[in-house]
Amino acid sequence: xxxxxxxxxxxxxxxVIGFRxxxxxxxxxxxxxxxxxxxxxxxxxxxLEELAGEEARGSISPVEAAQARNEISRRILAVEDRLTxxxxxxxxxxxxxxxxxxxxxxxxxxxxxLTLIIYTGIGSPAYEAQPLAMRLEAMRDAAxxxxxxxxxxxxxxxxAEDHLRDNPDDGRGWDVLAPVYFRxxxxxxxxxxxxxxxxxxxxxxxRLSGLGETMVTAAGGIVTADASALFDRALDANPADxxxxxxxxxxxxxxxxxxxxxxxxxxxxxxxxxDMAWRAVAQQSLARLDETAPAVENSGRPPVLDEATxxxxxxxxxVERGSVIEGMVASLDxxxxxxxxxxxxxxxxxxxxxxxxxxxxxxxxxxxARSAYEDRPDELESLRAFAQGLGxxxxxxxx
Length: 399
Known about the structure:
By secondary structure, the chain is mainly α. The protein has 18 helices and no strands. Among the domains are: about 1-120, no CATH class; about 310-395, Serine Threonine Protein Phosphatase 5, Tetratricopeptide repeat (Alpha Horseshoe), CATH 1.25.40.
């Protein structure tokens, strides 16, 4: 009750302060008084006496004294005119606006009432106040709970590791431990656990896409050929696997097939049956893709792979597909040696070297690209930004 009375008092005070000028009227704030005019006349006459003294002492020239005397006399006459008018009417006032008081009273009732209706509708009037100390304590408790959960998780991992040392063929143990390792940031152990689970229990879409994710993470976000093959196998077994669908789109981005990636991520983000976390990641990736992907539809260049090649590669093994891709990359590399003024070509080559994990080839491509555009800083900066966007430490290659 005290809270509501306080709110009402503060609201009323704010409204009164806001509408005070209307309640007082819009004209002169105070009436003319005879005493005020007589005081003004006395001040002006005193100024005339001082002016005469300064003229007598030579502090001011006769011309300047005459100008000042005329100005003071003008002011005296103006005050005497107002004094005469005030004496005839007693005092002058400006009538207040007739609806001001009504408007202020309406605001005093309407504004708090509307605020109360909105607050009770969308606010939480029954929610108890939480002082800062309580909120800080709640934050500390939440952090402590997270730390405790992490500690418990690590204890379970230690016990599971002890069990697996004695029972290395327990596929179920490896299967449970693999995602836990990944959650704790131990990517190498997670990959080993996934491989052991697949070896002992067989392939499932979840295990295949989980193993692929660990490989992408270990590669710094690059979908390597081996990881891409895992995602393909996962999607063959379960086309609805959200993790594999996302990384398949990422693989398309990294080989320049932006429209395919956009289509895959758009479908994933709108799939209400898919895992919410991967839907959110797909939505975020779509936003970044719209900002960074080049407009390939109007570039006049052929896609990275033509339709015929794509159809042929669908029936190939992972090794055969890798050989085809490497052959295409080698062909692109050779063409850029003869035609180095192809900015998009250099970007495709740099991306391909990263995807294929060819560090020497990446270094060679970056050095040749820099030589090709050393006299064109805008194009060179575009290449630098592109490589950095793929996770390349350009300073390591361009000292």
